[in-house]
Amino acid sequence: MSRTILRGRVLSFHRAPEGIDDTGSYLYLEDGAVSIQNGAIIAVGDFAEADTAGSVIVDHRPNLIMAGFIDMHLHYVQSQMMASYAGSLLDWLNTYTFIEEQKFSQQGHADAVAVDFYDALIRHGTTTAVAYCSSHPRSVDAFFAEAHRRNMLMVGGKVMMDRNAPDDLLDTAQSGYDDTKALIARWHGRGRGLYAISPRFAITSTPGQMEMAQAIVAEHGDCYVQTHLSENDAEISYSMELYPDAPDYTGIYERYGLLGSKTLLGHSIHLNHRETAVIAETGSVAVFCPTSNLFLGSGLFDRKRLLKHGVRIGLATDIGAGTSFSMLKTMDEAFKILQLRKQSFNPLASFHLATRGNAEALGLAETIGSVAPGRAADLVVLDARATPTMQMRMGSVETLVEELFVLQTLGDDRAIAEVYVAGARAKSTLGGL
Hints:
Layout: E1 3-13, E2 26-37, E3 40-46, E4 55-67, E5 69-75, H1 89-102, H2 109-123, E6 126-132, H3 137-150, E7 154-157, E8 159-160, H4 173-187, E9 193-199, H5 207-219, E10 224-229, H6 233-242, H7 249-255, E11 263-267, H8 273-282, E12 285-288, H9 290-295, H10 303-308, E13 312-315, H11 327-340, H12 347-361, E14 379-382, H13 388-394, H14 400-410, E15 416-421, E16 424-425
Parallel strand pairs: 1-4, 5-6, 6-7, 7-9, 8-9, 9-10, 10-11, 11-12, 12-13
Antiparallel strand pairs: 1-2, 2-3, 4-14, 14-15, 15-16
Helix pairs in contact: 2-3, 3-4, 4-5, 11-12, 11-14, 13-14
């Protein structure tokens, strides 16, 4: 197969930056060459030293080439209900979410939403995401089938929920187990698809269903586990009413063996000391969802405290309580939340987290998240002059860090000049673009 070389400024992280001046944490090439063949990166270096013979050269100068963004937590089945007004999490779930998710029992609905969902991801530069489907197996089939068609590395799963929701959304402990087992067999490891066992959250699963989830996790240790934790005060109180013997909210998942290095805990805002220690000890991942947390008034994520105690952290949009598919916007809101916390979150840290950091949280840093030989050629090309306002601001920008901050503060889908999935152009080939 022919080789393609992408020319442009290249940025890729080796590790988490220790500060805004930590130039050793990343590779930056002013005129770089990213050589791609068979969907993978085979070489990265200065363009002047690249072997260009027989290669197709795509010149993206002066734009910035980075690893594609990774979104650690969102609900593809909520794509059509973003920006739905509600006062709090539980009100929002009952008024909009559960009604919207019931539509996925209809023939053809999941397929249509999946196409729009993946188009939105690509437009915003996201090449991998971890998604909740609905309780209907056909929603999972549509999710993975569309990912397979586009050759995208995606993680997802059917929500297991057998109480405290409309009857049309409920499974049972047994059917949730059976459906999940069948879906794992059908999709986990097919193409680039990876399955996430998904008990929605403690409020919507009985102890019997939690036991079934525990059994599936024990049987399929190579799958991920995703659920929600400590997003909202009322949610925490209700969870403790339903599980009065648990020491705390995290203790519910701990009791059923659902914590571990492949466990992704959405939100994780209101954690006591014991919970923080357990999450750290088990290697579970606390997923920061800034736009959603602000939209629902859930609380302010305490990144500094969690890092201090050794908790692994991811970053996510949480569509549809989240208000943008853009990881740039998500970084921007994360910065603002942490400003309120009096915590530093510099642009190097945010771009690292949205790429290599999230890949590390998924245990996939050897596959995605970096612009390096052997990694998948899942890439984003960023244009810091994409809008008149950005172009005006860039007139006084002098450093890479300043440019990154302009991108995350003023950027959106217009700043995504191109996206590559396994080496193939993805954004410019979308219909209507």
